[in-house]
Task: inverse folding
């Protein structure tokens, strides 16, 4: 689930409120309909700085296997939430301006294969767009790993496309949809196929990439590379709207 929040929360820090007392804790499952008070959540960071839910331990209550990741621009917040599986998400404005030349930035941060690909694009706007898409995918990947940019430098891996038979957002399968894969720079023959990706546009204004670990408990999904997502637009305390199959969400097929 990807609840998309308004800019009113863009600069609020994570809170670490006190947990609910044991008597008021919900049953041993994740409540997703608002019955689990936000005050029961506390947060911690892993050694690379990625926020995680910190659960208090009680004898008669097992914490849900909740994982999440957050990204934001000046106008939108994206939050990816999963059960059991690590997730990374990044959102970028399509018209984001860079202070340096695109190819200069690519040489500094991207793999040689990605730089060579960008050089083939003669149109400046197309090159800018592809640079932002690649950056968004790479950012989602390192965040899914839980290491961030410092723990997994962008130059150490290549993002590329290969033929696939499934869409990247919930819906009917399409045979011509590409699959996004990760390749190690030091050994290009090795694909890091533990991970699945989705890349799409939101509101025609933002690129969003999601990276999730494959669900080994469900081999069927792993075989067809299907990453099933629900996309929600959320105004906190006001409105929740599922926009998965609407014009607000557009798959990127290249």
Result:
């Amino acid at each position: 689930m990807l609840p998309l929040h308004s800019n009113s929360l863009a600069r609020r820090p994570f809170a670490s409120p006190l947990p609910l007392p044991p008597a008021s804790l919900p049953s041993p499952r994740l409540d997703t309909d608002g019955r689990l008070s936000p005050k029961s959540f506390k947060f911690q960071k892993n050694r690379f700085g990625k926020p995680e839910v910190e659960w208090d331990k009680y004898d008669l209550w097992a914490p849900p296997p909740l994982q999440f990741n957050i990204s934001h621009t000046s106008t939108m917040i994206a939050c990816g939430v999963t059960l059991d599986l690590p997730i990374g998400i990044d959102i970028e404005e399509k018209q984001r301006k860079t202070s340096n030349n695109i190819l200069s930035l690519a040489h500094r941060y991207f793999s040689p294969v990605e730089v060579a690909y960008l050089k083939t694009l003669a149109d400046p706007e197309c090159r800018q767009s592809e640079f932002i898409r690649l950056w968004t995918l790479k950012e989602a990947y390192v965040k899914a790993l839980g290491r961030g940019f410092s723990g997994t430098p962008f130059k150490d891996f290549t993002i590329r496309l290969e033929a696939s038979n499934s869409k990247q957002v919930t819906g009917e399968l399409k045979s011509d949809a590409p699959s996004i894969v990760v390749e190690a720079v030091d050994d290009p023959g090795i694909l890091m196929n533990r991970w699945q990706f989705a890349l799409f546009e939101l509101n025609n204004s933002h690129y969003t990439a999601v990276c999730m670990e494959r669900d080994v408990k469900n081999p069927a999904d792993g075989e067809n590379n299907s990453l099933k997502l629900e996309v929600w637009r959320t105004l906190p305390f006001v409105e929740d709207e599922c926009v998965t199959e609407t014009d607000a969400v557009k798959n990127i097929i290249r």
